[in-house]
Q: What sequence folds into this?
């Protein structure tokens, strides 16, 4: 779901839209990689302890990937150095 907030070519709107989409992107990637349904994701999210070490490692890896994908867009928004 990549819905743009604001007019096209609006830097603030584009960045804000990407940030708003982060939780959904993260959840969808977890569901896909861990073969979880949405209810399973939210159930496991509420558990105090209930994730295996493998699941914890996978979640940390996915988190890093999602953050890196957003961080990789930073150069697109910066002016080229002279």
A:
């Amino acid at each position: 779901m990549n819905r743009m907030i604001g007019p096209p070519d609006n830097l603030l709107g584009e960045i804000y839209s990407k940030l708003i989409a982060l939780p959904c992107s993260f959840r969808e990637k977890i569901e896909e990689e861990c073969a979880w349904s949405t209810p399973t994701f939210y159930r496991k999210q509420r558990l105090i302890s209930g994730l295996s070490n493998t699941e914890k490692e996978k979640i940390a890896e996915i988190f890093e990937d999602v953050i890196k994908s957003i961080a990789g867009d930073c150069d697109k928004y910066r002016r080229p150095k002279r």
